Amino acid sequence: MDVGTALLWLSAALLALPGACGDCQAPPRFVFAEPSGPTDASYPVGKMLRYRCRPGYTGDMGKSPYVTCLPNSTWGSDPDFCIGKLCVQPEIPNGDFHFSTNLQFGATISFTCKAGYRLVGKPTAQCILSGNDVEWDSTPYCALIPCQPPPGIVNGQLSAVHTEYTFGVAVTYSCNKGFSLVGNATIHCTMDDNLNGIWSGPAPECKEVRCEIPEVENGKNLNSFATEYTYGEKVSFECAPGHALVGAHTVTCDADSAWKPSLPVCDPRYCGPPLRIPSAELTGAASDSSLAGTKLSYWCQPGFTTESGKSLEVTCLLDRSWSAGSKLCTRQQCAAPTIRNGIVNEDNFLFGATVTFSCNAEYELKGSSSAKCVAAGDGVEWDVALPSCERQRSDVLCGQPPSIRNGVHNGTRGTAFPQGSVVVYSCNDGFTLAGGSTIQCLATAQDRGSWSTPSPECRDGASSIIVGLLPLLLAMLVMNF
Ligand SMILES: *[C@@H]1O[C@H](CO)[C@@H](O)[C@H](O)[C@H]1NC(C)=O
Ligand SMILES: *[C@@H]1O[C@H](CO)[C@@H](O)[C@H](O)[C@H]1NC(C)=O
Ligand SMILES: *[C@@H]1O[C@H](CO)[C@@H](O)[C@H](O)[C@H]1NC(C)=O
After folding, report:
1. Are 22-84 and 146-207 the same fold in CATH?
2. The CATH number of 146-207 is which of 3.40.50.620, 2.10.70.10, 2.60.40.10, 1.10.530.10?
3. Ligand 3 test: best mutation among 398, 409, 410, most atoms within 8 Å of CB?
4. What is the model's pLDDT at position 15?
């Protein structure tokens, strides 16, 4: 045996020592599995020890049930090679179960019931061992919640009677003839927070309800004209014209035989004295206090007309005010004047306004130099005919005015007389003027100056008397002979 061989033996001996490398101690302990046979104090590397699942557990598919002694002296195995057996899903009619992890051996589940049911039994269950298998240690059930029989009432009855009343069942009451049902005719079996059956409300009452005929002064009953009213009947009111309804329009006959809310009142409403409206006058007289609904008529003063969209009729409203605003009549306007070859100096043509006219250069105003807008009938118009502007004719001249026998004129000899010049004639002593005393220089169609005709005449006063007496003298002569 050489030295090399001796060292090999030594190392082999060291490896074979208990607790040293190459040797495994007692096999591991698992909750879910145990060695299938008796165990030794130590095992050589590579030893595979078969395990079996403990009760309540079963081998996990595809995992090895062997535990192996590894070269670093530890035991190796597939993790969780046995798993808890499954308890069957519990069946709970009208209820449900809930779990936080799974339904395997050892798990705990809880139960609930749907509305109207309550749980009878333990509210939780655990998946436990039963012989070779697993099962739930308890299974509760869900039972319909019952109510006490519904309360009876006086002067009325239940429409139908059952032997038991469970959650959701409704019962209906009715009253004997002459009684009114106050409250809910139908109540149903429901539950409180502690899952006890209770009725949804108190049973109704059958009461003798009579409300008296509602009387509202200055008001009228719009709906019914019954001679008596019972529970729940409604009456609506309307007030007479000029009255405002204060309170509820509609009242209901209540269980205590009174109207609820209390009957309304019809309050008369008055307006004060009629409105003073500028440029308008009241038609006829009106008192200082008018009942709402009273209508007053106005008319517009001359030169004014009804404002567009306004009515001249003003009504007293329920809020004690008159329907119209302060303006009913509007000032009328005359037609805008136009002057050919001239201008109108103002632009206000409203009733009462005065306008003045001017002519352009070299034109002369003929007619009135101003006009005023005045009332005329229902409307307004200018008080004078509008003037015209005519071209000035400085070139039209008249010659010497004609001389007459026994008379003179004041035209100065030797001067030219422009268009429009006037001369006045007078007669010598003893002569009287016949015809007009003046003539005027006029323009002819040919733009020449010509004195107006006829010229006056001066007649002899004495000869005219003889001429006037002659027929009388002749008549006297004829009568004497
Ligand atoms: C031993 O070896 C195995 C596999 O080689 C390894 O998973 C494990 O962690 C090791 N144990 C120790 C204590 O070193
Ligand atoms: C009547 O029943 C309805 C609904 O069920 C409820 O809202 C009401 O409060 C009940 N009225 C009375 C007087 O109990
Ligand atoms: C003649 O007298 C009248 C009246 O007094 C006057 O209007 C007119 O201008 C006079 N005519 C002339 C030519 O002086």
Report:
1. yes
2. 2.10.70.10
3. 410
4. 42
Instruction: Return the CATH number of 342-391, one of 3.40.30.10, 1.10.150.130, 2.60.40.4070, 2.10.70.10.
Output: 2.10.70.10
How far is C-alpha 76 from the geometric centre of its chain's CA atoms?
A: 83
**Residue located nearest, by CA, to atom 1 of ligand 1:** 72
Å from CA of 26 to ligand 2 middle: 77
Rounded Cα distance, 82 and 299, in Å: 113
Nearest-atom index, ligand 2, CA of 201: 14
CB 12 within 8 A of CB 6: no
3-state percent breakdown (helix, strand, coil) of the chain, nearest 5: 5, 40, 55
**Residue 184 alpha carbon to ligand 2 centre in Å:** 6
When the pLDDT of each residue in the chain is averaged and rounded to a whole number, the result is 88
Q: If DSSP states are collapsed to H, E and C, what string results for 342-407? A: EEECCCCCECCCEEEEEECCCEEEECCCEEEEEEECCEEEECCCCCEEEECCCCCEECCCCCCCCE
| Confidence band, pLDDT 50/70/90 cuts, at residue 8 | very low
Residue 453 has pLDDT above 90, yes or no: no
Q: Give domain limits for the chain.
A: 22-84, 95-144, 146-207, 219-268, 270-331, 342-391, 397-464
Q: Distance between CA atoms of 396 and 153, rounded to whole angstroms? A: 126
User: Cβ(183) to ligand 2 under 6 A?
Assistant: yes
Tell me what percent of the residues of the chain surpass a pLDDT of 90: 67
pLDDT level of residue 1 (50, 70, 90 thresholds): very low
The first and second tokens of residue 412, run together, are 């100065």
Q: What Å distances lie between residue 459 and 97, 173, 410, 438, 455, CA to CA?
A: 152, 133, 19, 16, 13
Q: What fold does the segment set 219-268 form as a domain?
A: Complement Module; domain 1 (2.10.70)
The pLDDT tens digits of the residues spanning 382-438 come to 999 999 998 876 677 888 898 899 999 998 877 778 877 889 999 999 899 888 889
pTM, two decimals, is 0.47
**CATH H-level superfamily of 95-144:** Complement Module, domain 1 (2.10.70.10)
Architecture of domain 270-331: Ribbon (2.10)
Torsion from C-alpha of 459, 460, 464, 467, nearest 10 degrees: -110
Distance 72 CA to ligand 1 centre (A): 6
